[in-house]
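TEACHING EXERCISE
Course module: macromolecular assemblies
Task: Read the component lines below, then compare them to the predicted structure of the full complex.
Student: A.B.
Group: 4
Components provided:
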Amino acid sequence: MRPAAAPGDPGQGRFLGVAMFAPAVLYILLLIAVPFGLAVLYAFSDARIGSTSFHLVGLENFRSILQSPSFRKALRNSIVFTLVAQAIVIVCSNILSIALEKPFRGRGFVRFLILLPWVAPVSLGTIGWKWILDSIYSVITWVLVALHLVKPFNTPMWLGEPHLAMASVILVHCWRLIPFSTVIMLAGRSAISKEIPEAAAIDGAGFWRTTFQINLPMMTPILSVAVLFGIIFTFTDMTVVYILTAGGPYDSTQTLPSLAFATGIAGSDLAAGAAISLFLVPVLVLVAYGMLRLAHRAEVV
Amino acid sequence: MSVRAPGRRVAGRLLHVGVLVFFTGALAFPFFWMLIAAFKQNIDLYTVENNPFKFNLPPTFEHVRFLFTQTRFLRWLGNTALVGGIVVAITLLVAVPAAYSLARLTGRWGERLGIAIFLTYLIPPTLLFIPLSRVVGLLGLQDSIFSLVLVYPSMTIPFSIWLLMGFFKSIPRELEDAAMVDGLTRFGAFLRMVVPISVSGILTVVIFSFTLVTQEFVYALTFISPEANQMIGVGVPIFLVRGDVYYWGSLMAACLVASLPIGILYNLFLDRFIAGFTFGSVK
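Instructor-supplied answer key:
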């Protein structure tokens, strides 16, 4: 314990601390906590855009959305997109971070190019993909035709067929997250002690043994950071889906956030939209729990 | 280290280069493709048989000219810069004192409050946009960029406090103690001693907040409908499309012009952001 730092008047120091901290707490309460409370309230009400009527209707909204096929598709897609994208991102960013670890000429520029998908505004990068995946002028289609892999008169509709559209959404999520995950892992790698794996090699541990019994366990905390952020960024994102497919064709790429927007804002049914978006909460709670554990571990070490 | 056969070393080198070329190519390709489309003539762009990788007709500045003279692109850039500037100012005013106060809070409570604030950064716009759309309406800010000025700091403040807290903790308390012995008040010591030596941390927060404003999509789409009041991230993908007609040339030019400066800026401060994201699990 150390005494309060303000010499002479400790009470003044405490008052100053509270006064400096209060605006931040106020902002967070008013613009995060209150809206969150409102979201919960709306989910149990009949609030609509353009109507002042407001009644609590109990679980009515939840009953009707749980029965709707679009909602079930959105829930399934949100989970599938997140899991598949995370699996791909972890594998790719691991490989890429190993390749980027050793210094080589032009590494700074290569890093800049690799990072662009993450740092450029999402909506603009996604529009770039929309052009690449265009139904007629897609460059991917052109290459496939040139290689005689598809016939010119029967080209794939990347964003127009359910399975291809789902794959496209996952592809864009991976494209955006690989850079972020790679730099996180690079930071982790550079912090890991180089002596332990070298000592293990001298003691006769082979490549696989070093990788799985020494490097991987040492990488676990940083891998968790990358995965936890990746889950948030994919599961709660609506920009990629909204721009690429708007949830179509036939709701096949609809996710919870995009359905919440389509229902709550575009469809004016604030109550149902709020109820749909509340299904994001369990995942957020799990991720927050994971982060707390990591932070706790860092604190103990 | 075991002695490796030269053949194996060459193979390893090739694999290394191969991995780098593959990933760099794949990740940067959309931006390369924007560059190509931005300068191609429409006839070239929309002829399926043409090789899309080369300019079959001479390059043109027509799309770029159209973008800057016939659309509201510049207006959107201006809106974004204005909102970004005000949001940065609000973020600094709120986050810098809060982070300092938390960093100097003794005991475990400082750390705990800091983590609690960090966790609010994880609450996404897609959870709050529905109630906030009504709040914005009640305040009469519907369709105005000031709705975003009000709401965006709720996204930038938590992470900024987190970043700055780490920064202030690395400054020795003795510095302020000495200043206070010399007759400054604690707040005076904070303003005259701590803030000036924290410029690089404050700059990191400025860049972080500004890029977050340029990247946000959901709130801007929800709160604002008139074309003239749009931000760059919504204006380009939504309003550069007339009916069902995509002006791909100017669209791609717009994406590239807006993405590159933000990318360069962010890249300069990347290592600091990453230190914030990994919160102590990398030491």
